[in-house]
Amino acid sequence: MNNKYNPIVEVENDGLIIPEVGPWGLDKYNLVGHYANLFTTTMKEKWENMIYIDLFSSSGYAKIENTGKIVKSSAMIALSLPIKFSKYIFCDEKEELIKALEIRVKRDFPNLDTKFVCGNCNFKIQEIISHIPRYSKTNRVLSFCFVDPFALEIHFKTLKMLGTLRMDFLILIATGMAAKRNETNYIKTTNTTIGNFLDDPNWRVDYKGDVDPSDSSFTQFVTNKLKDGFKNLGYSQIEDFHPVRYRLNGKSVLLYHLAFFSKDKQGNKFWNIAKNYGNEQTILL
Question: Which candidate, 40, 27, 5, 45, places its Cα nearest to that of 270?
């Protein structure tokens, strides 16, 4: 394995749509790239098929806020790995983003096996699953699913369907960006966001904390309930969620957590290695 591998790759503007992201997005791209690299490098001889799934794939490029630098985002990072996945499945509900990604992929990686699904992944999950090769004793399939929503937009029912397969998950939980700032809205009985996120319409019965966006009780409640849900799916290898913070006005502000889930202790080992790479690596942008 190449310890000098760097997922952060600066690219030129190619005229296609490029969403802008905060500088903290680099941490996310760094971690998903390192984990994916460990995944393909170590699993290539053990599985006939390695599948990469990106449920909020965006357009493959991202412009870093304030600097104007353009880098490859998760989808193009996964495609650019030294050891490739057998197949790539990308989904995004914004047609202009998934179309831009498809153009970039067919331009830069025309020989790779790729599928593009336009629509909300929660409602397109059957189509997404249909693109995953069927597992057999002679055709073993291992998948890695990256879930990167801007808010708490993923439904646990969607993850549960994927979790019946042999699959590792890396999930962005918008604890600071969405859960904390929208707590007072989520508490309203007419709001279904948390119920869908946890697949538990009665979650308010279990939530004992006060409505107070200044503390962390609500985000802790949401993340703990999500952990319990994955444990019920057989995901015993659950590490503490990796927090991503950003200094704003001199204060360290929590933006989101990256949650990793695997049914195999080897997956946890890779995730811890990826976190160490991410912490050690200096990104010059």
Answer: 40
